[in-house]
Amino acid sequence: MRCGYSSHGYNYSCSWQFVVRLRSTNYMEITGGCVCGGTRYLLKSRLFALVDCHCIDCRRSAGAPYVQWGSVPRPDVVITKGEARKVSHANRIRSFAACCGTHLFFEDAKDSETIDVTIASLDDPTPFAPQKAIFLEDKLPWVVIDESIPSFQTIPKKQ
Ligand SMILES: [Zn+2]
Ligand SMILES: [Zn+2]
After folding, report:
1. pLDDT in tens, 16-75
2. Nearest ligand by distance to the CA of 85
3. How far is the CA of 72 from the centre of ligand 1 (A)?
4. pTM of full prediction above 0.70
5. Who contacts 53 (Cβ-Cβ below 8 Å, separation ≥6)?
6. Where are the domains of the chain?
7. Tens of pLDDT, residues 134-149
8. Ligand 1 centre from 31 Cα, in Å?
9. Which of 46, 51, 89, 146 is deepest in the core (most CB within 10 A)?
10. Residues less than 5 Å from ion ligand 2, measured at CB
11. Under CATH, what is the fold of the domain 6-138?
């Protein structure tokens, strides 16, 4: 059973309902890639645990005020063109397109069950609105938070 996914540093809580829904909608392919087109990937299942992360490491690594992430099971991420360059920092692994440096993936560990994907690198990010905002303790003062979604100073407490 796919419980206890870790998504961008917090455990995704799940239920049987969620698992059933995930399985029934699993058969879709989502594509994305880097800015120059040299690195392309395919996701074999729908992204879940959608977050806006305001942490300093995400900010610097993306060169953006904050980063949107979604998770997929590790086997569902397939590089179809080019190469992702892995960089280890603060015990986490970030992957960047080797061709042009676009930030693509995040892993809690090299054997983590899930891989987080930058929503903004998807060919069509529009269906994947954030569900939570995390690491508000690092948020820049001029970034306006969407009050309609839950937000956390760091990460949600494990349930
Ligand atoms: Zn590229
Ligand atoms: Zn982050």
Report:
1. 444 444 454 555 789 999 999 999 999 999 999 999 999 999 999 999 999 999 999 999
2. 1
3. 22
4. yes
5. 8, 66, 67, 68, 69, 133, 134, 135
6. 6-138
7. 999 999 999 999 999 9
8. 14
9. 51
10. 53, 55, 58
11. glutathione-dependent formaldehyde- activating enzyme (gfa) (3.90.1590)
